[in-house]
Structures are given as C-alpha cells and as structure tokens.
Amino acid sequence: MALLHKVTAPPPVPNKREYTVVGNMKHGFPQRRKMKESFSDGHGILYKGEVVNVQGPSSAIPGALLVSSGKRTTQVPYHYTEFSASYLDASGTFAGQDEGVCI
Questions:
Q1: Distance CA 102, CA 72 (A)
Q2: Cis peptide before 77 (omega within 30 of 0)
Q3: For the whole model, what pTM was predicted?
Q4: Which domains does the chain have, with CATH numbers?
C-alpha cells in the first residue's frame, strides 16, 4: 500500500522589505551606496567605486535595487552595491539616508 502525502501550497512569498539590515541596524530608503563592480544595463555604465542613490527595492526584478545616478534610473542586482552609513554627499550630510534603528 502506497503512502499518500497531502499536497499543500507553498508558503507565500514575503513582501519586499523597505529597509536594509546592516549589523543589528535597520536602514530605510533612500540610501547612498557604492558600486562594488561596474554594471551596464545596455543604456549606460555605473562604474566600480561610484556612489549612487538607491530609491528602494525593485518592483520588477527580485533581488535588485532601483538605483539613480545623474539623470538616469536603473535596476541593479543588490550584490553590485555595498552599503555604508559613511557615504556623505558634497555638503557633508547623509542626503536623506537615515542613521538606522537598532533591532
């Protein structure tokens, strides 16, 4: 006699987080990040070392971030960027980047 297993639906995919966890701190968007590698989307290149503005998670591509640089916005896989609370803008401020919330 064969054993039948009850088939259940997989668990739902969790919602995209509107924050990044670094260490034990949650950092909301927008964020400033540095490109760890150069990235081309076919319309231009974001160069390694370039500091970019991250608006939030991509709604179209899982694991990607919505990144602005200059006058263009593109979707970049998160592993091409690195986060640091020390990326300041030219005026020496966080440019909208929060200082994080301890979790």
A1: 33
A2: no
A3: 0.68
A4: 19-97 (2.30.30)
